[in-house]
Amino acid sequence: MGIPSIVRLIYRNIRVNVDPGTLIILIGLPAMYLVFFGFGFGAQISMTSGVAGTTTTYLKFLTPGIMSFQAVMAGTVGGSMLWADRRWGMLAQILVGPFTRLQYLLGIMFTSLCFGLAGAFVMLVGAFLIIGSLQVSLVGALTAFAVIAMGSIFFGSLMLLISGLVKSNNAYNSIQILIIFVVNFASTVFYPFSNKLPLPIQVLFEVNPLTYIANAARGGFEGALPAASAWQVPLLIIETIVVLALATRVYVRSEISFV
Predict the structure, then answer these.
(1) Does 259 reside within a domain?
(2) 176 and 159 in contact (C-beta within 8 Å)?
């Protein structure tokens, strides 16, 4: 029995994205956040957990946030793959072979999922080596990885949607970079939500899907999901379904090649 087409596409996508330059962006950037922010701010900040009400270190607070950020970085893989494949005619060549448009789409989605989970695991191992120990239950870890998986699909779909609409490489890269920095810093990845923030920033926090992911992941680490996750996680699931449907619609109607 031959290898399933989707598996072959996932393998191909992973091979394309494991070059040193791509890995530096996907793994190196979040790792630098973990190290420099963790030690830099950790030396100045002592904080109280928003879930359990217990004192914790900033580095332990930051770890699930940086793991959650991997969902955004993984999402960029899918969008970049589609744009590059269309730009260089690879999508047309792939569809000439024994692959369908649906299989190509699923290959990209599962690739984003793989990168999101793998990146989160690498950040978890890195944090363990830095901190020396991490007290997290199996259920808590599974909760964190489950919500990160959902987030990887959401951001993968979002980047795929943008890739399907944009025909300029400069425009796509600019939009992608803007999204990365806005959703990253306007979320609870690096700091907890506060009512003292300016109202526009509070709104960004509240509507940012990365906030939902980071809150749920951090709650999994602390042994109890925050009250906000009671509506944030279901909302994330709904948003993921909607964005995936829109991305699929745009992708199906998009040109196979720019050439």
Answers:
(1) no
(2) yes
pLDDT at 136: 81
pTM over 0.85: yes
Q: What is the DSSP letter of 189?
A: S
Residue 48 has pLDDT above 90, yes or no: no
- Confirm if 104 and 5 have CB atoms less than 8 A apart: no
Mean pLDDT of 205-231: 89
CA–CA distance, 206 with 143 (Å, rounded to integer): 21
pLDDT tens-place string over residues 219-231:
988 887 887 788 9
Q: Which amino acid is at 95?
A: L
Decide if 216 contacts 225 (C-beta within 8 A). Answer: yes
What pLDDT does residue 1 have? 45
Quote the domain boundaries for residue 30: 5-253
CA geometry: angle at 149 spanning 184 and 98, to 5°?
A: 115
Whether the Cβ atoms of residue 219 and residue 56 lie closer than 8 Å to each other: no
Average pLDDT in the 197-214 region? Answer: 93
DSSP lists the bridge partners of residue 47 as 56
Question: Does residue 217 sit within a domain?
Answer: yes
Classify residue 245: in a domain, yes or no: yes
Contact residues for 170 (Cβ-Cβ < 8 A; gap 6+): none
- Residue 138 resides in a domain: yes
Tally of domains in the chain: 1
